[in-house]
């Protein structure tokens, strides 16, 4: 049980500090007797030892060891078992994470509430920053409803549930030293199947599974259904060509699409290339990097196109780039290399009727074209008509969420692979007019055809 605190401060070695609450348990306790004071505690409670210049657990203290108090260091005189009783610990003592208990400096418990809803980049950095303390015996309580199956909380949870050693023997704790505990809705005495039916009708299945079944379903309004995202599974990389990850080898009698979403290559946004096979719409390869200049991005594109064309011929490999902003530099690089030296077909969107601006090769992305491609991608994924092998791409899809009238990466995440995939979708929309098999694969149709009623005229 936890009691929240908003009124009191606690004495520490650095003066009085705020703390967020007190936790209460029934546990086995022990008495630590020093020269001039004593304290009762659990076997895993932490005290600072001068001999080791570190925090150590009660069970590891030896007689004669120097333990820190508010008056300096005192020797441990004795240790004895007391029995099971109610014990308490302070939660989240500000800055120092320790407090003075009966003149003895004791380590407090770190408590993190709704950790899954902390911004992903901050959660990762925070967890790294407190890991040294936890690795030397520090304690942490983490409570949260799930928000994703790939964030820091989900990672900690999964590791806490892996309770086996290197030889497969069961262990009390997970491989990260945490014990996992899950509380379900039906454990509440006032909640039954009738309550569940009412709650499902009120908040829907996705939110019910997340909030009450503790299921790791994405909370944000993602482009792809969060239930479908949970079903997506990645595949092993079968080959690496430099930094290009290949998941499937090119095969004869197939057509391949290669799309580049360029970046400056200065360490910011990633440049990304996606490769898909049609008409099957299976992901074949992928590349991403944020330090590769645009000229070399086109070089990577050229090598991927050549690998595919060596198997299926020049006329069965189509490549393209987004031509907005940075895409202009990509078009210049392609021109300098020479289209004739890239063994594939440079695919571009057709010029629109009445277009007054200078026609440029490649694809121009507007909010309208992006939304249309997003809608098509959503349909293909949720109806199992596209196969994604990359764990990186699946991860980006999970954080590709609603932003106003469009979709983009969740704050602190990236979406460059998704944007390259959207370009693949747009390329396939053009090619379906020339490949009947592709047209059948990606065109939306009702499963059942309803015969129209005959027209009846009445006079």
Key traits:
seven-stranded mixed beta sheet, disordered C terminus, Nucleotidyltransferase, domain 5, 3 domains, 459 residues, single chain, Endonuclease - Pi-scei, Chain A, domain 1, 27% strand, elongated, 22 strands, alpha+beta
Structural class by secondary-structure content: alpha+beta
Q: What is the CATH T-level topology of the largest domain? A: Nucleotidyltransferase, domain 5
How do the strands of the widest beta sheet line up side by side? Answer: 14-15-18-17-16-19-20
Using only C-alpha atoms, the radius of gyration works out to 30 Å
Morphology call: elongated
Question: Main sheet?
Answer: 7 strands, mixed
Number of strands: 22
In total, the number of domains comes to 3
Mean pLDDT: 81
Please characterize this protein's 3D structure:
The protein has 459 residues and is an alpha+beta fold. A seven-stranded mixed beta sheet has the order 14-15-18-17-16-19-20. Strands 1, 4, 5, 8 and 9 form a five-stranded antiparallel beta sheet that branches. Strands 2-3 form a two-stranded antiparallel ribbon. Helix 5 packs across helix 6 and helix 7 crosses helix 9.
């Amino acid at each position: 049980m936890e009691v929240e605190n908003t009124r009191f401060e606690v004495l520490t070695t650095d003066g009085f500090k705020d703390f967020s609450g007190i936790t209460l348990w029934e546990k086995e306790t022990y008495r630590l007797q020093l020269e001039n004071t004593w304290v009762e505690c659990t076997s895993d409670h932490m005290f600072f030892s001068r001999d080791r210049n570190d925090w150590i657990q009660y069970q590891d203290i030896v007689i004669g060891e120097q333990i820190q108090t508010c008056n300096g260091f005192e020797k441990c005189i004795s240790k004895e078992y007391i029995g099971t009783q109610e014990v308490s610990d302070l939660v989240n003592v500000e800055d120092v994470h320790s407090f003075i208990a009966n003149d003895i400096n004791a380590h407090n418990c770190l408590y993190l509430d709704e950790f899954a809803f902390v911004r992903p980049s901050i959660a990762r950095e925070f967890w790294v920053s407190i890991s040294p303390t936890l690795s030397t015996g520090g304690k942490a309580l983490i409570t949260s409803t799930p928000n994703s199956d790939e964030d820091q909380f989900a990672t900690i949870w999964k590791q806490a549930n892996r309770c086996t050693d290197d030889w497969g023997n069961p262990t009390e704790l997970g491989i990260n030293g945490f014990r996992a505990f899950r509380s379900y809705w039906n454990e509440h005495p006032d909640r039954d199947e009738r309550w569940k039916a009412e709650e499902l009708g009120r908040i829907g299945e996705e939110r019910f599974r997340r909030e009450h079944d503790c299921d790791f379903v994405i909370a944000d309004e993602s482009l792809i259904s969060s239930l479908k995202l949970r079903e997506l599974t990645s595949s092993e990389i079968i080959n690496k060509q430099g930094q290009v990850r290949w998941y499937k080898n090119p095969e004869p009698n197939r057509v391949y699409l290669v799309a580049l979403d360029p970046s400056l290559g200065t360490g910011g946004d990633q440049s990304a290339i996606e490769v898909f096979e049609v008409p099957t719409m299976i992901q074949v390869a992928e590349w991403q990097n944020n330090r590769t200049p645009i000229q070399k991005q086109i070089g990577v594109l050229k090598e991927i196109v050549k690998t595919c064309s060596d198997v299926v011929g020049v006329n069965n490999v189509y490549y393209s780039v987004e031509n907005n902003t940075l895409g202009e530099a990509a078009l210049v690089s392609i021109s300098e290399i020479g289209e004739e030296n890239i063994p594939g077909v440079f695919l571009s969107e057709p010029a629109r009727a009445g277009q007054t601006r200078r026609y440029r090769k490649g694809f121009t992305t507007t909010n309208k074209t992006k939304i249309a491609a997003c809608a098509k991608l959503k349909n293909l994924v949720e109806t199992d008509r596209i196969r994604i092998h990359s764990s990186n791409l699946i991860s980006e899809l999970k954080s590709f969420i609603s932003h106003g009238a469009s979709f983009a990466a969740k704050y602190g995440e990236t979406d460059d692979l998704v944007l390259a995939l959207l370009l693949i979708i747009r390329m396939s929309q053009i090619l379906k007019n020339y490949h009947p098999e592709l047209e059948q694969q990606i065109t939306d149709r009702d499963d059942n055809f309803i015969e129209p009623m005959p027209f009846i005229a009445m006079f």
